[in-house]
Amino acid sequence: MEDAFGTWTYQELLNHSQAFSAWLDGKGVARGERIVVQLPNIRQTVAVFYGACRRGVVFVPLNPGMKPFHLRSVIADADPRLVIAEDETAADRLRDVTDLPVYSIDSLWADVERLRDAGAGAEAVEVSPEDLAVLIYTSGSTAAPKAVACPHQQIVFAASSINAVLGYHAEDIVFCRMSVSWDFGLYKVLISTLTGAKLVLAGGEPDIALVKSLRESGATMMPIVPSLASMLTTLIRRDPEGAPTLRMFTNSAAALPQVTIDALRSAFPGAQVVRMYGQTECKRISIMPPHLEHERPDSVGLPLPGTTIEILDEDGTLLPPGEPGEITVTGPHVMAGYWRAPEITARAYRRDETTGAMRLHTGDYGHLDEDGFLYFGGRRDDMFKRKGTRMSTVEIEAAALDIPGVTAAVALPPTATRDLALCVASDLEPHDVLRSLAERLEPAKVPATCRIVNDFPLTLNGKSERKQLARLLDGSDK
């Protein structure tokens, strides 16, 4: 395991995690209690995670970019025993929002190193498979982030089942630029550990140095989101040494447009680009098997092994292949609901009346084909009607990205005060974009306006920040 400051073997990771568990024990943190961790992608973050798991302590990772406005409510909601920050400056900021003990990783790690050197390590406690391992805070339709409660058994099943499809192995070098505070990054830790692959914890390097970092690390596997994929293909075109040798890209967050997939394949000859679809509420829903990457380009793959996808109508009736409806999921990876939010949990997690299995209602829409491949239609907020035609932002954005010269696109559904709008990163004129869209879409699906926004705002996890773009269009950011 490697970060910007050095390297550990897995044995060294084990030793440090055992020493951290002894540190937790010394602080009196007991099984089932929470620790909030706001750390960058460094080796210590991983040791903290595994050390907490050894003691049955719940790991609550927060993105280092989360601001006091949300930190205050998240820490209150998690109700932890203590908080760990990146450094003393960050620790002081956290002390302004909580009365709990706050430790900087630098200061506490000196104690962990002494415990490790002394061979100390608290005994692993007896952890039930149903015990919570992690709380992942995720934004959604509510103002404050909510936490998905992730038990040990669901996490273990999801990591193993994902790797059964992707096939990571001990010779792989996994380049992870995703924050470990996000489940996409955390599962790279889990799958690397599961397979013995080398994990490179990245993210501290400037964007311009990304290709160099990939080349120097010898990376073979790289998780990406659309914004990162677009940036990477642009950087490769400017790099005189050509592309590093990667064998696989895996995608999460927003769907990866076909034009971006084609650009990755062109920039990285021989690399597989694996389409996936998932939600934190069950981690992964479907994966296109790597050997079928060129098949059914509109599909996001097959259900995760050992799981079931069903498409239901508004009344909960099972729909046949080809019929669009809500995507629902059952299986051992369905998480335990939302932390301390029974009403929200009851809406998303419901028992199948026939089998008694817990079914996740994703709020997303799509359909299955006759062979069980899933086609993603859009998220609940992506679907809308305009001029009598049902459509989704996904298809409008995909059409926009098909236009040469457009490198990013976000479609914003109509509101009471604004018609359907499109924001793009491009050197084209807005009317040229709309004219090209009219060649690709039905008239009702062509936005009324187009705005050029070459510096797209992004969320902490690299997704396009739709709310900020909407404020920009509506003029409320002035």
From TrEMBL:
CDD domains for the chain: FACL_like_6
Superkingdom, natural source: Bacteria
GO MF entries: acid-thiol ligase activity
InterPro entries, A to Z: AMP-bd_C_sf, AMP-dep_synth/lig_dom, ANL_N_sf, ATP-dep_AMP-bd_enzyme
A Pfam family matched in the record: AMP-binding
Segments forming domain AMP-dependent synthetase/ligase: 6-339
Protein name: Non-ribosomal peptide synthetase
Lineage summary: Bacteria, Bacillati, Actinomycetota, Actinomycetes, Kitasatosporales
